[in-house]
Amino acid sequence: ELFTSLAHMERALFAEREISSRIKEYVREEKQRLDALSRLADELETHSSKALENVDFYLGNPVNAYLFVKRFTVDWERHIEDILKWKPNEEFHEKVNKLKEYLPTYEDLNGAVAALLRLQDTYKLETEKIAAGDIAGIKTSELSAVDCFEVGRVAYNDEDYYHTTAWMIEAMSRLENEKNKTVNKSEIIDFLAFSVYQQGNVRHALDLTNELLTLVPGHDRALNNKEYYLKMISEKEEKMGETATMGEAATMGEPAADEPLKNEKGRDEYKSTDEFIMYERLCRGEHTHDYKDQHKLVCRYKTNNDPLLLINPAKEEEIYLDPYLVAYHNVISDYELAVIKSIATPKLGRATVHNAKTGKLEFAHYRVSKSAWLRPDDDIVVERVNRRISAVTKLEMDTAEDLQIANYGIGGHYEPHFDFARKEESNAFKGLNTGNRIATWLSYMSDVEAGGATVFPYIGVKIFPKRGMAAFWYNLYKNGDGIYDTRHAACPVLVGTKWVSNKWIHERGQEFKRPCGLLADGLKKD
Ligand SMILES: O=C(O)CCC(=O)C(=O)O
Ligand SMILES: [Fe+2]
């Protein structure tokens, strides 16, 4: 009796000890979870308060924009969701889920990567430099191996094997230097092998697949692919005949392993036209044309004997003589710009701009019309600006078309076009009843940190935006013919945001200001 009872007691003591250690284990796990949550909260707080200090600066950078979107898609799914799910608290989850509505999605991730890759192409940015946090000399966050890997993966899903290869190679090289590896080497090789195969480099794909198999010996897909690649190579060798040696035959007609083929898929024919090539060169700020009249260009104070300009002359800089193209510096004040920006409301329009929410390029212009929502003072400011434009250009201001305001985000651009209607589009401005667009006044309402130039590919002119500056040119000769050399485009914004407004001036009403002529001339205003 005593003996059994003692045995019971002893078992009870063991149980007591076990309960204690279970509790301790539970508390340790809870602490870990709370530590992780608290680290996460700190991280989100640090990040958001730093970004909120200067939102335009922060989100105006394509790398920051990508990293921001990535943290709420890929990172969230990989690391954050688990921490939050662990021991759920319903009220907490309900609140977090509500806020998630405002967070970026995978669609945004695709958009951010697409913008980054488009900018990489237009501005010829090296993958290595972007990853090292250098965008055309502007310092940004560095990318980790997994950051590069995710860029490559988005490109891969888009069947863009050229960029997949470049970014996976960069991920590999970043991985070598990482103390805490952010991604598995085998995952990178897996994508890389397939993308170099898609680019036509079977031998390189085979080498990579062998490397993958040394890392993950039983990898099913790699084993299958290896067999397939070997078969392709031996078929090719047979075709090459007996004259070539084995090694040569296998690589003949293929690029060297370190020289991936450029994938042409998705690049429409337009992109290889002279015009597009010139457009991109000008966007990069390259010199494309020698201008024979360069020495004739002057800068001058312009008053046109108009009282408004006598007290405050326009600072005119000639850019081109035929077609006549000039810039006016500090011609619109910061206050006026602020008012014009504030009255811009989004409406469907006609330019390709970057939608920050979807990350896509879409048609959207901001249109200002003289309607009820204009505050009385705003109206006066718009009138005042129009009055100044009229004084400077010596043209009548018309209200046939509303002031068009465009806000381009990262990657936002507008491909080459004419502002006037061509003969075959005789109906273009019919409804307006004011004729064709005789001239364009383009106001720059913001500085742009990098990119975003207005370029004229036929004459080799590039104008880099400056806040308060305006560009002015005639679209039509005096006889009404269109001036085709005015074809122009807005380059993608590389860093920053770009605000412009277009004031189109029409033919009607200019009868005394700029009389018609019989000839295709009359480019000079005086
Ligand atoms: O934004 C620019 O630089 C040019 C815009 C333009 O050409 C237009 O809106 O018609
Ligand atoms: Fe235009």
Question: Top keywords for this entry?
Answer:
binds fe (ii) ion, nine-stranded antiparallel β-sheet, 526 residues, binds 2-oxoglutaric acid, four-stranded antiparallel β-sheet, alpha+beta
The radius of gyration computed from the alpha-carbon positions, rounded to a whole number of angstroms, is 31 Å
- Estimate the strand proportion: 15-25%
Helical stretch count? 17
Rounded mean pLDDT is: 85
Poorly predicted spans: 246-266, 346-354, 361-373
How far is the first residue's CA from the last residue's CA?
124 Å
**Helix proportion range:** 40-55%
- Overall strand count: 17
Shape estimate: elongated
- Largest beta-sheet characterization: 9 strands, antiparallel
Ligand inventory reads: 2-oxoglutaric acid, fe (ii) ion
Strand order within the widest sheet? 3-4-5-14-10-17-8-7-6
Give the structural class. Answer: alpha+beta
Cofactor: L-ascorbate
EC number: 1.14.11.2
InterPro entries: Oxoglu/Fe-dep_dioxygenase_dom, P4H_N, P4HA-like, Pro_4_hyd_alph, Pro_4_hyd_alph_FE2OG_OXY, TPR-like_helical_dom_sf, TPR_P4H
Pfam family, one: TPR_P4H
Outline:
The chain has helices at residues 2-53, 55-59, 62-71, 74-85, 90-100, 106-122, 127-131, 145-157, 161-176, 185-198, 202-215, 220-240, 246-251, 274-283, 307-311, 334-342, 376-393; strands at 134-135, 138-139, 299-302, 314-320, 325-329, 345-354, 361-368, 403-408, 414-417, 437-444, 450-451, 454-456, 461-463, 470-474, 488-490, 493-495, 498-506. By secondary structure, the chain is α+β, with helices and mostly antiparallel strands. A hairpin with a 2-residue loop joins strand 1 (134-135) and strand 2 (138-139).
